[in-house]
Amino acid sequence: MSFSADPLAPPRRPVLRITCAGGEEQMIVCPGPALGRAQWIGLIPEDATQILLAAAPGARLDRVERRSEASVLLACAARKPGNALAALWARAKGQSRRYRDIVRGGVAVTRRRHFAAWAATRRVPYEGPVPSLTIRCIVLAHGAAPEAVERTLASVRAQTLAAEMVVLTDALVGSPSDLLSDAAALCVLHAGDALEPEAFALLAASLGDADLAYADEVDADGTPRLKPDWSPDLARATGYVGRVALVSRALIERLPNEPLGSVAQAADTLGRLVAEACRRAVHCPRPLATVAASPSYPARELVWPLPDPAPLASVIIPSRDRLDLISTVSRGLLEATDYPAIELIVVDNGSTDPAVLAFYEELKRDSRVRIVSFPQPFNFSAMVNAGVAAAAGQVVVLLNNDIGVRGPGWLNAMVRQAIRPEVGAVGAKLLFGDGRLQHAGVVVGLAGRAGHILRRRPADTPGHLGRLRVAHEVSAVTAACLVVSRDKYLAVGGFDAEAFPIDFNDVDFCLRLSAKGWKTIWTPEAELFHFESVSRGPSVGVKRERFEREAALFTARWLDVIRHDPFYHPVLSLTTFGEDLE
Q1: If exposure means fewest CB atoms within 10 Å of the residue's CB, which of 176, 429, 431, 498 is most exposed?
Q2: Domains in the chain, ordered, with CATH?
Q3: What's the CA angle centered on 22, arms 17 and 23, to 5 degrees?
């Protein structure tokens, strides 16, 4: 299936709803047509009776083609033989959803290094109205080769929306207001950058009354820089906004009227100032330039102060039996964590192991520890809520019993973030026992619902745009290690124990915090082990039925976010977990 959309339409992924005989319904989230056109290939059940496509206003269904299952499997085998074998195994075991996703991962997903060929079949030139906006384009050209300067000037001359051009060859650059002069918006490029002809028209149409409009870029080596929607912490830490951007006069007038320094650093300095002062930014999610060199903006850690004295952190660990786990996490917290004000609340769900009960007696000798009994049937959300009800701390720390402390400063790093007025939940960098990534933030929509990005990658994986090197905004984090101010927890009613007793409770919680205006932060400064999840098998039977019920409730409640996670580009795959193209 091929479909197209207006590039200025809201970035919502199309959704297929397939009704099968007996009334069963499947929902499939398709790739977003951010470059103008998108393509989807997937398995339609044999007993399908109706297929509906929900897309953004103005979207067009360009082509529908039927391919046999055998031909798609052969294509999968040719591209990724391992996927084909895994798919056949899943099919033989009756795992229809897994089978479908494995095949899609083999035939419908492209590595980002092949972006040019992938984009060539999807890019549709913008032919919409050209807004009226006076733009001043500064080209930083000190020491640049003449051909690099001409490449940039030629791309500016070719714009469908004309702009005033100024070439700076001086070694030093003036203040932001000097650069803007009398124009309504400012763009600063490096010599060698080459804009797409519609760049200024699309950015101007996107800008409206915002402070900043920015688009994606392609590096000189062909690697795309596919950016999230406005992510202030990430912008301050990495300068991901880059150079393909329009800065409004209103924002320029709020910046310090001081020289930006040398040509080599002027764009980065301006980027830092813009990121600090920007109140509203708009992302145009398509590459509108090839940049001569990647922005040199070095990643930096934003340090948030911790009050003195530090707020009491109430650490809540739901648990049952498993002495090996509860003893490891408790000792790691009480003996190997350097946060100065901790209380530990173990919410016990009917442990019967004498060794565990004896360990509880040992723990209770520490005045910081309490054991709260939860004798009802297992309900993770209700257990967490019971722990919070018993807590005295200003800060709540949710911790699974299968967590292992890796270094003393993890809780300091998380509390510093959680007490910021604009922050809701804070998540940690979690590693499997073998040292690979288990949790680097949750992408809503991944696998059709929500999932952990880049799981099972090496621990030092930088992530696209270097995101995993710095604390940054995400849509959700896992409750295996989550920190939040107690008043914010209570303000949204805690975990939803009725709708999500076992699964999706943490993602739902983060999204409800976001709906109240509090953002979720993931930080690599807190790094811990998450032991059990690497070996946990798939839910089957009654557990699977329960999981599907919760998944259906989650989908119904958060479909808008599933269709567009603001911190995950709409052309990136929801089928695989590695930031590939789809």
Answers
A1: 498
A2: 2-120 (no CATH), 135-290 (3.90.550.10), 313-563 (3.90.550.10)
A3: 35
